[in-house]
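re: ur question from earlier - yeah i can do the single chain one, its not a big deal. heres the input i used so u can compare w yours
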Amino acid sequence: MILVTVGTHRQQFNRLVKAADRLADISKEDIVIQYGSSSYIPIHARCFQWTSSQKMEALTKLARVVISQASAGSAIQTVRAGKPLVLVPRLKKYKENHDDHQIQLALALEKKGYAVIVDHPDESTLEIAIDRACEKYCQPSGENKLKNALKSQLAEWSRTIEG
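and the output i got, formated as tokens:
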């Protein structure tokens, strides 16, 4: 299942919702879209407007990949769940946000290896980003990465002390 979320912003995010719905029309995979304040309501995907944070967390854990606006909350939840993440920043020029701060967060997360960015969502750019995210970022969750890094460092120190 692919989960698409636009968060709780009051502004619409029709660009992402429409693109994800077109992807659902051609995909063999189940796509679930949380469309929030968007005026476009999906016709090809399973969808809902709002739900609880607990339900979003459960859906994130079930998803193979998450496509999201570039908000800290959605990104953190996805990374903690160890899921590949595709980010589509909300842009001021499309009246999706009051400024373009989501671009900065998306770039930082991509640079750190947590996400793939899509600037212009349509069914093909989303498909490509999903494939890239799954190839590059199907790794242990952030918590497991930290545990593995600590274990590696402890092993290195042990070798130094013993040697």
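Residues 142-162 form the longest helix (21 residues). not sure if urs matches, ping me
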